[in-house]
Specification:
By secondary structure, this protein is α+β, with helices and mostly antiparallel strands. The chain folds into 2 domains: about 80 residues, F0F1 ATP synthase delta/epsilon subunit, N-terminal (ATP Synthase, domain 1, Sandwich); about 50 residues, Up-down Bundle (Single alpha-helices involved in coiled-coils or other helix-helix interfaces), CATH 1.20.5. Helices cover about 30% and strands about 45% of the residues. It contains 2 helices and 8 strands. Helix 1 packs antiparallel against helix 2.
Length: about 140
């Protein structure tokens, strides 16, 4: 069994990470899950959510926007629309996005075609704020 996982995190615009890590947690279609070295192979879709990975005693947080997560032979490949590290997130901009989404949702019903667009924007803003707050705490 390998002692580390090879983490590859890629967006359509750039390779965000390529690192050896000890553990990864993410939010899949069925909820939160964790992967350690020696994990069985699998493929799942990711929801808007937080990705956390550990290297020794250091823990890192990223905000992800929908994608895929694959584990094969201790290599984890994550393909997502967007990925932002905690220190890359503009907290004020996230708060403004949250406000815009909340205001739009107040005027819509679940049947409106734009409801899911603003609901997703709300989720992204909340995750970005959650991840950015972890940067502020250390």
């Amino acid at each position: 069994m390998a002692e580390k996982l090879q983490l590859e995190l890629i967006t359509p615009y750039r390779k965000v990470l390529s690192e050896q890590v000890d553990m990864i947690t993410a939010f899949g279609a069925l909820g939160e899950f964790a992967v350690l070295p020696g994990h069985a192979s699998f493929l799942t879709s990711l929801k808007i959510g937080e990705l956390t990975y550990a290297k020794g005693s250091d823990v890192y947080h990223l905000a992800l926007n929908w994608g895929y997560f694959e584990v094969v032979n201790d290599t984890v490949t994550i393909l997502v629309e967007t990925a932002e590290r905690a220190d890359e997130i503009d907290l004020e901009r996230a708060r403004e996005a949250l406000g815009r989404a909340e205001e739009a949702l107040k005027k819509l019903t679940r049947e409106d075609k734009d409801f899911i667009v603003y609901e997703s924007a709300l989720q992204r803003a909340l995750i970005r704020m959650q991840v950015a707050a972890k940067k502020a705490r250390g």
